[in-house]
Inverse folding.
């Protein structure tokens, strides 16, 4: 194809290929074990496939309603009520999305205008800030303090101003595995009280919280629920990240604005998978058992690495384990991640990429959403360092 001579004023001049794509590609090129990108290497339950195939065969193959098929929206509403004690109306307050990333982008596009400020907590998941900047907003960065990654609410207070339009929170937190407390939500409620700030709550790992702890959803607190859009992901819950199906719940007032954008940037999500998931959700144990399932994997992986030269940080939720590597190498974390992939045959994510200023604490992220054989093989290579 001939080279284009078009002059393009990029909306995202600093953005290149995501680190997840880079590291997964490098892992494939090197034949490395891929503990970088957050997807399982095991299959979901066959009954989910069967339910989806049945939907196809029964003719559920055309456009569904823009907000999602009725039975899935009802199942989502039932699940949220059983977990958090709040009933979202399935007709006006639940929308099925093409994954959580689309839900987050759509929410930002619906509420953030040029010149608005959005507070994010860093290390910050990599899709948030580009979405903010695409619609002309400005990110303001609140720090999650290393090594426990707790929010500093006085710092958050200092970032609030007349242009603050949105606060994006993420708990359980990717990439750190930190989990917010009820007290954190109390601070958030106090800081936003009497304002027009919208809270966008990324809760895609809501079912993956360890050691008997409880996930504190903003949905559980009426004061926060009234100003919040809450995002979750079937990909994380049912091991189907490639299906790219998530959802968002929120008050009808907020959801009305969300859907104005959703109907034009996605319109809707494939029908048979929605129907299959709705059928599969009837057994609550399938999501209620997720914490124990991943806690066993976390414990297995941590045990394998306890005699290594990696220093493991606390992991209270998600399926990610952070580790310091300074006893192994003095390389910057991006260089170390590339070296580890090429030389040790294990791909990881460097945590500095989640900071706007590239802050480097010498920490990398492992994904343990893998078969035990995969984790054991990776740990054997890591222990040799």
């Amino acid at each position: 194809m001939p080279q284009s001579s078009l002059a393009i004023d990029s909306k995202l001049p600093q953005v290149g290929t995501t680190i997840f794509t880079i590291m997964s590609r490098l892992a494939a090129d090197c034949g490395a074990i891929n503990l970088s990108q957050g997807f399982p290497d095991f299959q979901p339950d066959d009954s989910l496939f069967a339910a989806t195939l049945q939907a196809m065969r029964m003719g559920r193959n055309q456009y569904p309603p823009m907000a999602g098929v009725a039975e899935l929206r009802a199942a989502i509403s039932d699940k949220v009520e059983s977990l958090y004690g709040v009933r979202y109306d399935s007709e006006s307050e639940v929308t099925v999305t093409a994954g959580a990333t689309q839900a987050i982008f759509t929410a930002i596009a619906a509420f953030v205008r040029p010149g608005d400020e959005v507070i994010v907590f860093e290390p910050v998941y990599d899709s948030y800030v580009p979405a903010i900047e695409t619609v002309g907003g400005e990110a303001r960065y609140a720090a999650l303090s290393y090594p426990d990654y707790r929010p500093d609410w006085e710092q958050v207070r200092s970032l609030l101003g007349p242009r603050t339009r949105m606060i994006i929170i993420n708990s359980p937190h990717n990439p750190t595995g930190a989990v917010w407390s009820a007290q954190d939500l109390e601070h958030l409620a106090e800081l936003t009280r009497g304002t027009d700030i919208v809270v966008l709550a990324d809760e895609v790992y809501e079912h993956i919280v360890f050691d008997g702890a409880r996930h504190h959803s903003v949905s559980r607190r009426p004061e926060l629920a009234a100003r919040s859009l809450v995002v979750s992901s079937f990909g994380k819950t049912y091991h189907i990240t490639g299906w790219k199906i998530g959802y968002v719940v929120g008050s009808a007032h907020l959801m009305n604005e969300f859907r104005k954008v959703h109907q034009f940037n996605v319109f809707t999500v494939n029908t048979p998978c929605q129907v299959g998931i709705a059928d599969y959700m009837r057994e609550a144990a399938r999501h209620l058992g997720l914490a124990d399932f991943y806690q066993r994997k976390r414990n297995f992986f941590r045990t394998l690495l306890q005699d290594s030269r990696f220093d493991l940080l606390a992991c209270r939720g998600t399926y990610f384990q952070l580790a310091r590597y300074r006893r192994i190498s003095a390389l910057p974390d991006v260089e170390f991640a590339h070296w580890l992939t090429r030389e040790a045959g294990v791909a990881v994510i460097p945590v500095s990429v989640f900071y706007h200023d590239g802050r480097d604490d010498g920490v990398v992220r492992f994904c343990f959403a893998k078969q035990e054989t995969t984790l054991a093989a990776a740990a054997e290579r890591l222990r040799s360092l």
Q: What stands out?
A: The two ends are 46 Å apart (CA to CA). DSSP finds 15 helices and 14 strands in the chain. The CA atoms of residues 36 and 348 lie 4 Å apart. The first strand starts at residue 33 and ends at 34.
